[in-house]
Amino acid sequence: MKDEERRVKKSLSAEIFCLLTLLVSGFLIVSCSGGGFTLAEKGNSPYVIVLSDNPSPSESHAAEELQKFIKLATEAELPLVGENDPRAQKSPRIVIGSGKLADSVLSKSIPVDYKALGDEGFIIRTAQGSGSIPDIVIAGGKLRGTMYGVYTFLDRMGFRWYTSRVTRFPEGKVVKSPFLDERVIPTFMYREPFIMEAFDGDWAARNRVNSGAAALDSTHGGKLTVLGVHTFDQLIPQSLFKTHPEYFPLIGGKRVTGYVQRCLTNPEVVEIAAQNLIAWMDREPSQRIFSLDQNDVEKNCECPACKKIMEEEGAPSGLYVTFVNKVAEIVEKKHPENYVCTLAYMFTEKPPKTVKPRKNVLIRLCPIYMCVGHPFTECTSNETRLFNEYLAGWGKLTDRIFIWHYSTNFSNYLMPFPNFIEFTKAIKTYSISGVKGIFFQGGYTSLGSSDADLRAWVMARLLWNPSDNANSVVNEWMHAIYGKAFAPMRAVYDLMHSRVADPNRHLRIFDAPTGDLWPDSVIASMDSLYNAAETLAAGDSTATYYVRKNRMSVKYLQFFRNSGQLEVADGVYKPVGNSVTLKDYDNFVGYTKEFGVTALREEPFDCNLFTLLRQRLEEHPVETLENADLRMDIVPGLGGRIVNVIMKNGNVNVLGKTDRDNYFYPAYGGYDESTTRTWASTGFAQPYKAEKKGLSLHLTGKESNGLVFSRVITLAPKGTKTTIVSTLLNPGKNPRTGRFVCRMELNSEPKGTVVETCVKDGSFKQEEAADFYRDGANKPSGAWRVENKSAAWVMENVFSSDSIEACHLVADKKAGTVSMEILGFERELPPRGKTTITNTWEIRKK
Fold it and tell me: pLDDT tens across 165-186, in order?
């Protein structure tokens, strides 16, 4: 037991646990007469713990936990015996688990329907024994119910497990119990704060978390989890395309493979998915919920049958639920005990008009677009308004809804994230909306995300009992952990939340730490409060540790906000305007290591934010290609990107000046190439080896995620035309899927940008710049161009139509830029196989 667990703090009065609460869900029914009784005091107790016959692993563990914690609090070691031990025949006893003895003790009370309690429900009753002190029975579902009953009993007596490092007990070496008569069945069958600080198995079980990445073994009753996500490639493999292209989506008039959806109206696809799902269930006999989910991309089938269902149901979700229902019907014959879980996410978030999920289908609703700064029932953002409609709509179709609720800044884990008011109210709303489970996705790839310890505990408490007062729960944790430093730390918390008090200031899960949200004055105020908190915490190792850990958020803001822009000067790409140095970087990294921080964000790409933050402060060699009309500056060490394209006639740089708040910066902007800009992207951030030959620059990257990028950039001897020949190589021994995305970020305000596309006769037609994405039969015929009306120049991109799947114009209103992206087809690259794209870029005055 850690030293901090032995510390005894001010007792939480047992009287606050005398409750009379009745939730519609049946979560908690408690009746409690006044007063209470002493269970153990200063090394003495009249009680014996009796473990029922044939206990489950979690029941045995729970009995040992009860014995351990009472001893730690009072120094009294209660005997732990079986039902047949002579000491089990005399009062007072704490009976753990259902059995003959429990029934005997409870013979004069209302009979217990253990079947109705399920796996996680339980009862706690005090009953008059043979002596003057009452017996206690804690019994319920053998999987986790009895164990949760023991932890609830300890909770009622003032025991708390605030973090995996800090446990608090009643003070004075005395433990008192109220008279209890409780029947508890959890509101939510699935409860998961997916935060690394919540992954400790003991902490999770003690706080009645039952799922996720927590190390919940058989002694904790195992876990209830949803196996898998985005499982189409797993259950309907891409390898099938060679022999059965009809299983894959029809897009732009042809069947395509790669990371795409499937043709969900094909009955053979239904059968293949069902049989592979059954085989998966056979391999995992202890699990009950399996995912059959869309891929994380919007590439739906456009065949007449699929389109018809989507149109009739008014949403793509109609097609997906219809497909999942058919698969689930087949699966049910072999595994009637299991559920098939599918996502309502992004393009499937909107519910269908009529099709209802089968009884063995769970809908996992993922509101990824909504604001998380305000309670979603009150927020004014359009995305949040739509989520309210979608939640209500799904509720009319099914009562089997899980929520995937996003609860961190995935781009900046350490940035303050003021969403406590939002998520605590969301839990209550979900509980009365019939939601059956909540997955809170937080900082799961590293310790140290914003308020992680407090966030995990508050989530666990409210997931177990949604009727708890959230503000009181927050204050309890802060008093227990921060001690004398409570006031300034609570002030930090309140100041953080004041930043989103304005109903029109919304908070998103990928927001940058901008000066608008975190101005210097607010950062300075937070810093002063942390100074005060550290002073007050002096001498208290627990308070000092958690104050300093929480302070990482303001240190991150100070570092990030004061790292400057990189510009080409004196032949190098170097920082301009920084007020932080490489020494400051080293100090910041050292500080984060104190708290086990290994990542500053969710890292889906081939770079990490620690590296990028250092690159903001370093000088990077530049290679220049130049003729009489044009100069290009290229930085091999930063993804081989072109950072300047300067027309010498007028000294105009046509490339945008990338916003330094972008969390990819400086591996962002200018001209770059990658496999994609979505999950598992590679290519745009790694260093390249450079070899200059006249007006050509040969760039070769290191292997990244199993692929090697190379390109040759050639400037024409005169004029402003540049040719780029790009190659993607698979150096490995196994086939890999690869594609190209080539993008040129231009200094052109979106409102002042005109897009023209080449048609088959070679002429150009003007198109709307907003939401410009053209693929299939609609893609440009080998060329497209963008005109900056105010600066009077045009950038034209020419390519082979056979190598390009789509053209995409991405507007950034804040940075005042547009990016021309050409997307190559996804191709399977055999060992040593490669794919090549050749395209030209020409800038000219209008």
Answer: 999 999 999 999 999 999 999 9
Phi, psi of 809 (to 5 degrees): -105, 120
Q: In what order do the strands lie in the sheet with 181-184?
A: 28-31, 181-184, 122-127, 135-140, 93-96, 48-51, 80-82
- Nearest-angstrom CA–CA distance, 602 and 487: 32
Secondary structure class of 824 (helix, strand, coil)? strand
CA angle 21, 24, 26 (to 5 degrees): 70
Strands 721-729 and 736-738: unpaired
Q: Contact, 506 vs 371, CB < 8 A?
A: yes
Contact yes or no for 290/229 (Cβ under 8 A): no
pLDDT of amino acid 717: 97
d(CA 228, CA 769): 38
Positions of E strands within 141-281? 160-161, 167-168, 174-178, 181-184, 190-194, 226-227, 250-251, 254-255
Two structure tokens written together for 521:
């004055």
Q: Span 780-805, mean pLDDT?
A: 94
The pLDDT value recorded for residue 6 is: 29
pLDDT per residue over 683-734, tens digit each?
Answer: 778 899 999 999 999 999 988 888 899 999 999 999 999 999 999 999 999 9
Other C-beta atoms closer than 10 Å to the C-beta of 48 total 19
Q: Which residues of 239-249 are buried (b: 16+ CB within 10 A; e: fewer)?
A: ebbeebeebbb
Global pTM value = 0.91
Give CA–CA dist 21/142, Å, rounded. 25
On the 0-12 / 13-18 / 19+ scale of CB atoms within 10 A, 311 is exposed
Rg of the chain over all Cα atoms, to the nearest angstrom: 31
pLDDT at 498: 98
Q: Which domains does the chain have, with CATH numbers?
A: 3-186 (3.30.379.10), 620-845 (2.70.98.10)
Reference 496, options 517, 475, 473, 515; nearest CA is 517
502's tokens? 């304005």
Q: Pick the residue with more confidence: 703 or 780?
A: 780
Give the DSSP H/E element, type plus range, for residue 364.
strand 361-366
Per-residue pLDDT reduced to its tens digit, 441-491? 999 999 999 999 999 999 999 999 999 999 999 999 999 999 999 999 999
Distance CA 125, CA 183 (A): 9
User: CA 224 → CA 163, 692, 833, distances in Å?
Assistant: 22, 58, 43
* C-beta neighbour count of 733 within 10 angstroms: 8
- Side-chain-side CA neighbours of 340 within 13 Å: the count stands at 34
For residue 28, pLDDT over 50 is answered with no
pLDDT in tens, 109-166: 889 999 999 999 999 999 987 667 899 999 999 999 999 999 999 999 999 999 999 9
User: Which residues does 535 contact at the CB level (< 8 Å), separation at least 6?
Assistant: none
By mean pLDDT, which of 12-16, 35-39, 73-77, 397-401 is the weakest?
12-16
C-alpha to C-alpha distances, 595 to 442, 448, 478, 534, 599, nearest whole angstrom: 17, 7, 19, 16, 11
189-210: b or e for each residue (b if 16 or more CB lie within 10 Å)?
bbbbbbbbbbbbbbbbbbbbbb
CA-to-CA distance for 639 and 646, rounded, in angstroms?
Answer: 20
Please state, in angstroms and as integers, the Cα–Cα distance from residue 111 to each residue in 40, 98, 185, 286, 365, following that order.
Answer: 29, 12, 16, 31, 39
Indicate the helix (H) or strand (E) that contains 683. none
Instruction: Name the token pair of 258.
Output: 């790669």
Helix or strand holding residue 56 (H, E)? none
Q: Are 658 and 670 in contact (CB under 8 A)?
A: yes
> Which range among 80-84, 452-456, 508-512, 661-665 shows the weakest confidence by mean pLDDT?
661-665
Question: Do residues 341 and 289 touch, judged by C-beta distance below 8 A?
Answer: yes
Look at the block and give the residue holding tokens 């039902």: 83
452 within 8 A of 443, measured Cβ to Cβ:
yes
Helix, strand, or coil here: 244?
coil
